Amino acid sequence: MNEKRSHAIFERAKRVIPGGVNSPVRACRSVGCDPVFIAQGDGATITDVDGNRYIDLIGSWGPLILGHAHHEILDAIAEAMSQGTTFGAPTEVEVRFAETIREIFPSMEMVRAVSSGTEATMSALRLARGFTGRNKIVKMDGGYHGHADFLLVAAGSGAATLGIPGSAGVPEGAARDTIVVPFNDLATVEQALAGDDVAAVIVEPVPGNMGLVEPAPGYLEGLRALTQKHGTVLIFDEVMCGMRVAYGGAQQRYGVQADLTTLGKIVGGGLPAAAFGGRADIMQKLAPLGPVYQAGTLSGNPVAMAAGLKAIEILGRPGTYERLEHLGKRLADGLAAAAEAAGVPHVVNRVGSMFTLFFTAGPVTDYATAKAADTARFGAFFRRMREKGVFLPPSQFEAAFVSLAHTDEDIDQILAAAKSALVD
Ligand code: KE4
């Protein structure tokens, strides 16, 4: 595969951007190759600067559930931009965005828009601390909620892939109040909350940052009951699974409502927009109403709001989630069958159109069991699949995503590539 131009651009990039990338996982270090630089995306495919075309299973790490360069979203962006791009003053489209989110996520009685998932989770946790007057928080081992200091404690995603337990630069004081428990384990949560001194439990209800792990039956209900009992705010971080695993996110799919919810990725329609929201009595503690400060220059940016609203509108059309379920199931089942036929130890975890193929006999039910996966074999698989024109997330500890732009023929092509990549 010709990577000449990618290589030249990567050499330039490394001179001016740390690692040559603006987000660590893009550097492909954990899968033993250099990144390729992308020139264009179209539907289910992306093309790199050397003209190599790939069926894309990253989807920008979740936002592109409709595929690349969706014409209705591009039109909505162009229309919004023609009116100006940002004002630093309120606009009606921000109100429409909050009203729409509240309709789809009834637990989100009030909503504040921000520009990234990190901002959403950082703000939600400060709000929970301000509301309860407590300092401690609980997160899951392998859970990733963006890179706020107090969350980079046994974080998943990039940190897990890079093997950084926590991170340099995070003061001991910032991590001191963060308690880390295994996902899918209610006993350790009960233990952590016993002192009635925990402000919040933050959890990805469908974790995607340790690779994909499904919540065990009753687990989310258990978290709801325990946090209720101990006066702890339950925060569902649905930045990745919100509008991915169901229109109303994990809380609709599993029927468990959180006190606060964070959203991102899909709700920005491919532009930088995210949000947090929840119970009105908690949200009203936020400035300018209450004492908890939070702000953002481009929060609720009208162009990003327009892109997000258009994506949300399209996702609300009949048959959307049935189609995503069909494509996700076909692909996950096909990958499992191909690994079985190749005699490769594997487990494929899937919820809707997000999945992970783990190179371990499994089951994978939390971060400890995910870490048993053979990351070297994953790296070899990633490299072979990329050579065969399939772009997987460059990490065993990430989820892959199918979009509405993928076709059954794309799934067939991916499975044909996997069948040979698994035996090469
Ligand atoms: P951002 O700050 O990257 O917009 O969102 C942080 C975040 C919060 N919560 C969840 C559940 C997330 O998955 C994320 C970000 N996800 C990663 C992929 N695992 C983003 C990719 C990257 O870091 O480059």
Q: How would you characterize the overall build of this protein?
A:
- 38% of the residues lie in helices and 14% in strands.
- The chain is an alpha/beta fold.
- The chain has a 7-stranded mixed sheet with strand order 4-10-9-8-7-5-6, with helices on both faces.
- It has 2 domains: 4-69 and 318-421, Aspartate Aminotransferase, domain 1; 71-315, 3-Layer(aba) Sandwich (Aspartate Aminotransferase, domain 2), CATH 3.40.640.10.
- It binds ligand KE4.
- Ligand KE4 is lined by residues 23, 25, 61, 116-118, 121, 144-146, 157-158, 204, 208-209, 237, 239-240, 264, 398.
- The site of ligand KE4 has 20 residues, from helix 4 and helix 5.
Which descriptors would you attach to this protein?
Aspartate Aminotransferase, domain 2; 14 strands; four-stranded mixed β-sheet; 424 residues; binds ligand KE4; seven-stranded mixed β-sheet; globular; 2 domains; single chain; alpha/beta; Aspartate Aminotransferase, domain 1
The largest sheet, given as strand count, sense and whether it forms a barrel, is: 7 strands, mixed
Distance between the termini: 16 Å
Strand content: 5-15%
Report the principal-axis shape: globular
What is the element layout, followed by pairings?
Blueprint: H1 4-16, E1 38-42, E2 45-48, E3 53-56, H2 71-81, H3 92-104, E4 110-114, H4 117-132, E5 136-140, H5 157-162, H6 172-176, E6 178-181, H7 186-193, E7 198-203, H8 219-229, E8 233-237, H9 249-254, E9 260-263, E10 274-278, H10 280-283, H11 302-315, H12 320-341, E11 347-351, E12 354-358, H13 367-370, H14 375-387, E13 390-391, E14 400-401, H15 408-421
Parallel strand pairs: 3-13, 5-6, 5-7, 7-8, 8-9
Antiparallel strand pairs: 1-2, 2-3, 4-10, 9-10, 11-12, 12-14
Helix pairs in contact: 2-11, 3-11, 7-8, 12-15
The chain binds ligand KE4.
